[in-house]
Amino acid sequence: METITLNTKAKMPMIGLGTYLNPGKEVKEAVKAALSLGYHHIDTAAVYNNEKEIGEVLQEFFKSNSIKREELFITSKLGISITITVNKCLYYFLKTSLSNLQISYLDLYLIHWPGVERLSPNDEQNASLRKESWKALEELYQSGRVKAIGVSNYEIKHLKELLEDCKVKPAVNQVECHPLCYPSELIKFCKDNDIVFESYSPLGTGKLLNDPKVLNIAEKHKKKASQVLIRWAFQHNLPTVPKSKTPERIRDNINIFDFQLEQEDMETLNSMNQNRHFCWNPEKVK
């Protein structure tokens, strides 16, 4: 599996399994399929409410010696609350995630959203609570219980604010990205500041799978639309975490290394950008 090197020197697989799926059997079967097919990167979050099920699958694979913990890259995410403190992050949020996942450390821990639950997007408290949350993540990073820290859904304005006084630079910014939502300025800002831009929802929550331009390119290369979209991200050097609950699609999503999109294909897909979000849009978060 191809990897990208973070500013911590850790290597993150370019393709992971997104697990924004229903907890229970659905997510367990998806993770089992992914690990069996060679995925080494699993992406989850506290708010997904499925860390416990993922942990049970991980233990099955560890006990059978099918895979070792050090061979995996596991990401989870922290939601910012009004009562955020360093101690609460360490002794409640992270402890709960690690306990549910049945592991002793995370490879990557992200602040999930630049806003705060129960606050309006334009509330000035968002900025101060983001700052407090990042201090907490820096403490967790220094403790060794998380190997890298980063953010998710951060705009350039949020990153500039963070970079002004952080002690540890974020390793990753995970953002919705696909041809209809291609934030080239944000990608460049991340690259210029040694932050890996990671794409989530690379298929546009499935809405791009029937797009005529995508289908034409897929037909030309005798590939599926999903493979074209993931390959597009890969050729932009963007790691990505497509989600699926279907073993066949999980297999397809990782089999994108045997073809190359031509320059005209890339230009066609790039030109589709409409800054259209199908998931969360953080632009209004102050």
UniProtKB/TrEMBL annotation:
Start and end residues of each NADP-dependent oxidoreductase domain: 15-273
UniProt keyword annotation of Oxidoreductase present: yes
Single GO molecular function: oxidoreductase activity, acting on the CH-OH group of donors, NAD or NADP as acceptor
Highest taxon listed in the record's lineage: Eukaryota
InterPro entries to which the protein is assigned, alphabetical: AKR, Aldo/ket_reductase_CS, NAD(P)_OxRdtase_dom_sf, NADP_OxRdtase_dom
Residues under site feature: Lowers pKa of active site Tyr: K77
A Pfam family assignment: Aldo_ket_red
Coiled-coil segments on the chain, per record: none
CDD domains named among the record's database cross-references: AKR_DrGR-like (cd19136)
Active site, renumbered: Y48
Binding, substrate: H112
Alphabetical UniProt keywords: NADP, Oxidoreductase
Stated family: Belongs to the aldo/keto reductase family.
Protein name: NADP-dependent oxidoreductase domain-containing protein
